[in-house]
Amino acid sequence: MKKVIIIGGGIVGLCSAYYLAKEGAKVAVIDKSDMLDGCSYGNAGMIVPSHIIPMAQPGVIHQGIKWMFNAKSPFYIKPAISVDLLAWLIQFYKNSNQNHVDKSMVPLRNLSFFSKELYQEFAILSKDFGYDEKGLLRLYNTEKVGEEEIKIGKIAKELGIEVDFLNQREVKELEKDINVDALGAVHYKSDAHLSSNHFMAFLKAELNKMGVKMISNCPIFDFRVSGGKIDEVLTKFGIFKADEFVIAAGSWSVEIAQKLGVKLHILPGKGYSFNVENLLSKPTIPSILCEGKVAVTPLGNEVRFGGTLEITNNKDTKINIKRLQGIVEKVNEFYPDIKVDLPYKEKVWHGFRPCTPTGLPIIEQSKKFQNLTIATGHAMMGLSLAPASGKLVSELILGKKTSVDITEFRSC
Ligand SMILES: Cc1cc2nc3c(=O)[nH]c(=O)nc-3n(C[C@H](O)[C@H](O)[C@H](O)COP(=O)(O)OP(=O)(O)OC[C@H]3O[C@@H](n4cnc5c(N)ncnc54)[C@H](O)[C@@H]3O)c2cc1C
Hints:
Layout: E1 3-7, H1 11-22, E2 26-30, E3 46-47, H2 60-68, E4 75-77, H3 83-95, H4 98-125, E5 136-140, H5 143-158, E6 163-167, H6 168-174, E7 184-188, E8 192-193, H7 196-209, E9 213-215, E10 220-226, E11 229-235, E12 238-241, E13 244-247, H8 253-258, E14 267-277, E15 287-289, E16 294-299, E17 302-311, H9 321-334, E18 349-355, E19 362-365, E20 372-376, H10 382-397
Parallel strand pairs: 1-2, 1-13, 2-9, 4-17, 5-15, 13-20
Antiparallel strand pairs: 3-8, 5-7, 6-7, 10-11, 11-12, 14-17, 14-18, 15-16, 16-17, 19-20
């Protein structure tokens, strides 16, 4: 029986633990936090086969520069004199082209569909995390953005993703209980959603039942290696030995990999969310308000609003009120009935998306260490792609053929 240590107990680490334990491996997850509030908990909970275009795409740099000068925009790069930032930006620039998009779409679609199938299996085990297949409305209120959304929708449809193109009247017919002020929408009917906090609680309960050790508040300090293999990891609570090691530490994976002399290009993309309870009228279908990149997710009695992507560092926990205002204004523009107030700072959750300069996740076996697997860099799709990523990690470690082709999911 293989002994595996997973560093990082976010959704990717926990899904990896789940599929490894299911195959009989003896698994321990080590996390430096209390495992209650990281990036995998407060996200928008969207499962998104619709996201076939990676973040690195043509036009993104031009748009990004424009957004940099608008304090309420959904995107920002925190200026810093940093070799890591410069290296990331160079890689991002190199990947922001049509060739990269063309190469990425099918692998991303396959990974997403595989992950959704695995979510459907989880949903049979429990109703507690609110898994629902209502699709996703990408709402727009300008002609220009609408044209772009429809263009992407058509590509997605050609790739076998279920898509409807809705005009203003059709959007209103679909969302009867609330006034939606949008010119139109692309309805991705293949998408689903759930409550991320509840899903994490469900996963932890399953792992407990399976005998997986979860060691929280335990930062890792270093490794001992010999002959191209990792022997031990040195942590706050002592030294742990294993046959195999997994780095699944989200945006912190860089610093952990660095201790092993492995270079990863990942930067944290900070985002915010907040919940509003008991709204008199609320949407029934999750949506993205395209002009502001705001995510709106109905979760039972609550609605979660989320957005912004600030490329920054992991210590930057400041809540930027202007950007929060940007989210609130977009919500009130698209759903005039809701009238959301600016939330108190204490009510706002933040998380760091692990962003690669390709916009694709990294799921690979290390070239440097024969017993190291890396699963990170899922940026805005970590929840969506976690079950597939976890299953792939287990397949890589157990020497099985991978369920989907992972050639494109490698570090650069
Ligand atoms: C506002 C917002 C909305 C989002 N909405 C969606 C969505 O709708 N759908 C979607 O698919 N994704 C969404 N995401 C992205 C998603 O949340 C992330 O991609 C995902 O949570 C990343 O999971 P992870 O397991 O890779 O990393 P994390 O959840 O960050 O977990 C990494 C773990 O590693 C631990 N760690 C770090 N350093 C160490 C160390 N030295 N030793 C031990 N442990 C360590 C950390 O404590 C942490 O628990 C959203 C993100 C944000 C911010």
